[in-house]
Sequence to fold (219 residues):
Amino acid sequence: MDGCSVLVIDTLRATTTLTTILDRGATKVLTCASLDEAFHYKRQDSTLILGGERHNRPVPGFDAGNSPFDYPSELVEGRAVILTTTNGTQAVAKVNGAERVGLACLLNAATAARWQQEQKSEALVVCAGTVGHVSWEDVLTAGAVINEWSEHDWTDAARLAWTAFTVNQARIAQSILQSRHAQHLLSSGMERDVSYAARINQSSTVPVRGPDGWFYRNA
Ligand code: MLT
Fold:
């Protein structure tokens, strides 16, 4: 991973939500792997917004959940957010050693692809998946990112993701709806989160990890 630029993807919903938080005017976002770590930061600074989920549900004592709709501009403008989620922020923790880390989702696929190419280093795309299993929506997003690159030295995994995306490109929202995680969110009444996350290239924000470990807009 040394010298790589890494894009982490968790389309449903962590990287979609984090991109939205910065889009709506938050100054920065810190991803935490554990609830304890998140509460620790909040004890140190009560102005922080504590957000996230465990098993798709808001965490008792947190200010917000993991829905992009939990973070309107009126709440986040000019503020810093701590986010911890079941899979997405764990995937970010796993690439702590990487030199450059950005976050991608369908909303920012083209901008994230451009950001990664500008790094002029080996590109690694990490799909968070769901508790260790491949997630269809993350593979589609990886394909949307790869679709922006010229074909050069792709791994077979990259080719698989690209093929999944191009075959489903014309019906991406319907395709995402078929994923296990989307079905789970739907059965829990979160269909608007799924529809929101299934919109492609709607944001020019790429959350990029700064030297202090926080994510900033297009840093
Ligand atoms: C996660 O990180 O596991 C997801 O974002 C779960 C979710 O809230 O849908």
Remarks:
- The first strand starts at residue 5 and ends at 9.
- The two ends are 20 Å apart (CA to CA).
- The pocket of D-malate is lined by residues 10, 12-14, 53, 56, 66, 85-88 (CB under 6 Å).
- Residues 5-203 form a domain with the putative 2-phosphosulfolactate phosphatase fold (CATH 3.90.1560.10).
